[in-house]
Recover the amino acids of this structure.
């Protein structure tokens, strides 16, 4: 039996605001950060997980990680049953639950610990996470899911039926995935603070690199957006998809008016047009901006909001985030909800290590849940990968399936040392 | 000019789980707690605010309070403009916003600091908070509100119209309020872990004390609930309203079935039948359980969710909480939303100091916003008031209007000393 004997928390921050990489209409100067947790077991095995934040407040998440120690230390962690029980014990802690429930700092911290546990277990199985989940039975996968508050849209039997329907094709899809990779799109060209010529150059480079979709940040100033989108459209031609992302900048009426002005440039989707909490707002916007698709999810707090976005027909694209919700367990629930409603899941990535994590989730979706890459694409941002022991491998506009054991979540020891806040060399 | 020169944070916990006061279907053993903030100004004035939690994790909120220091220290705090600016600067901090946005630990901490600032300013004006707000013009009140994400349901002009319509009657309603108080209901009789005879006795006492509404916790076990509700109904007779509160225990279908079984006892409202995030779920439940009313709000994270609950026709009763959202400023937005949709606001209270705080908010609603007590009632729980310098005064089933300057939010120095966690005498 493997038992967790220690949990270590570290505040890691990269001073990204110095270069304005990652700038958008809501986040002008992020310092990409990670509230980082390492679980160690009595057999020497280790699992790493983290919450991505953008700077200030990362220490609050570290404090939330510490509050979870009582659920972690001494816990057996040998396989799927233990993973389900760990998730349940933290999410259902009746006192901690008051701080959400299932949202914000406390829930994100739970997600990091859950993800660290999956990293540990899949490493012990000597399989990359996406392959480890592919070895689980439909019953074992369904047992990871907390169906509380979901049963009016998805119950255990319906989830089982989805997973069983995908079971026969797992092997073939795995082989295709390993051979061909998973489609990606890039946001590296479109940060809000980039000058026009940089947008044009990076957009052309993205196409040359094999991407068939790029994304631009919008929502700062309408005239700027019209000009920038025009530059990008001219750079990539008519056949490349250009998604736009407003990072929650607008009210409902504003979103509709703004997207009307951008419509001539044929945007593929509008991402986060308004508050991630505004289910009915997204539905109202979607009704007005079609055929432009509506996408959201990176800030959606939990499966209950996802359920409603789908029930309300509010979105065309369901974006998931690896460190916003309660970790792999809740993301399995969200993948199942997407499959149930026939809405494609396109993960949000970038930040610190989100590309590394979400590739596994998208590949789980392909192999074991939806069984398809149709209309699906993983975000890619060429940023901070050098700090990870098992960085993403994106070539020809596609994520290559990870081969190293685990969740690709481990940051290099030297990077932790250098960017530890506030005493690492980068901050002294 | 008054300038904030210090902010002190304290982790205060009352060992209430030892008596099972406060027990309900989701919270079997709460230790009622406060993450407590004191602002001090250069002129010696002081304001107190706090987040109510139920134990574990209170230290995480204290850490979130500390993250707000940069927005507080050196800030002028002389009147409504400064209050609006303080609220805005914290809510719109682009890096801290990532931890929500506007939800969970970080948002609750912002609310505590906002509330402390209103305590300070109204004390300096030598007025109880509810009276201080009554001295503000409709424009000054509207300027407290962040209309972002609200304008599809309520914009500044509509809010101004509501406040202006209420302005002529302010004086008369103030006089009536001072003379007669504000209607209350009591939850003290109905905690889930109380034995049957205690429920019967406390229910009879509540009626004798002048309450016309009581509330029972439900959702643990259906047979128990049928028996307990029967006992309470028999104790109070047919004319007293009995609300029931499931504390988020059910899924949609379960809520409907459970309420069918309780219907013979004529429950007045069902409170928190399911997840506070489930707007569409509440709407579905409401359609099925009428004429029983649906109430929620104590765990509703922010004004965006409130807006949708009202847009969707999901609730009959809008409950507000003093320490869940972004403080007085966001609660003014919520009062205005309630008025806009004609849904009565009935504050959630209990815990640590929630009765002390929400009485002011309900009285602001009466004097300056909705202008009515019709269908409105403030929760009362007879619990922990002795630790407050200006405790509530509830007699004859009514809250008496506070007369002491400030927000009634200050905990006695001796109580802070005794219940400070983990080093106070109560915890050693």
């Amino acid at each position: 039996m493997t038992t967790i004997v220690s949990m270590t928390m570290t505040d890691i921050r990269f001073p990204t605001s110095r270069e304005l990489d990652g700038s958008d209409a809501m986040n002008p100067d992020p310092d990409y950060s990670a509230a980082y947790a390492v679980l160690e077991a009595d057999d020497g095995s280790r699992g790493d997980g983290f919450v991505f934040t953008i700077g200030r407040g990362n220490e609050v998440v570290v404090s939330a990680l510490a509050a979870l120690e009582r659920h972690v230390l001494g816990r057996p962690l040998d396989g799927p049953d233990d993973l389900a029980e760990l998730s349940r014990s933290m999410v259902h802690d009746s006192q901690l639950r008051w701080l959400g429930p299932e949202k914000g700092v406390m829930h994100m911290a739970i997600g990091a610990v859950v993800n660290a546990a999956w990293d540990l277990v899949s490493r012990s199985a000597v399989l990359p996470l996406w392959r480890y989940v592919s070895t689980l039975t439909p019953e074992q996968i369904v047992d990871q899911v907390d169906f509380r508050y979901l049963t009016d849209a998805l119950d255990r039997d319906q989830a089982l039926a989805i997973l069983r329907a995908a079971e026969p094709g797992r092997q073939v899809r795995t082989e295709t995935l390993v051979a061909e990779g998973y489609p990606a799109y890039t946001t590296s060209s479109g940060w809000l603070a980039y000058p026009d010529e940089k947008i044009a150059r990076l957009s052309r480079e993205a196409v040359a690199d094999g991407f068939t979709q790029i994304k631009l940040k919008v929502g700062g100033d309408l005239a700027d957006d019209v000009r920038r989108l025009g530059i990008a459209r001219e750079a990539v031609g008519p056949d490349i998809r250009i998604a736009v992302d407003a990072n929650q900048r607008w009210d409902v009426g504003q979103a509709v008016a703004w997207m009307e002005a951008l419509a001539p440039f044929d945007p593929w989707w509008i991402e986060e047009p308004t508050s991630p909490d505004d289910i009915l707002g997204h539905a109202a916007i979607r009704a007005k901006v079609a055929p432009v698709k509506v996408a959201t999810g990176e800030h959606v707090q939990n499966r209950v909001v996802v359920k409603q976005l789908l029930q309300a027909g509010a979105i065309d694209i369901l974006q998931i985030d690896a460190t916003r919700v309660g970790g792999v367990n809740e993301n399995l629930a969200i993948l199942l909800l997407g499959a149930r409603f026939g809405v494609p899941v396109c993960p949000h990535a970038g930040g610190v290590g989100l590309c590394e994590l979400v590739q596994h989730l998208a590949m789980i979706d392909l192999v074991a849940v939806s069984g398809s890459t149709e209309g699906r694409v993983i975000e890619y941002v060429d940023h901070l990968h050098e700090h990870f022991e098992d960085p993403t491998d994106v070539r020809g506009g596609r994520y290559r399936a990870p081969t190293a054991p685990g969740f690709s979540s481990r940051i290099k020891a030297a990077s932790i040392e250098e960017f530890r806040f506030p005493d690492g060399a980068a901050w002294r």
User: Anything to note?
Assistant: The two ends of chain A are 43 Å apart (CA to CA). Chain A has a mean pLDDT of 97. The first strand of chain A starts at residue 4 and ends at 13. Chain A touches chain B through 62 residues (CB under 8 Å).
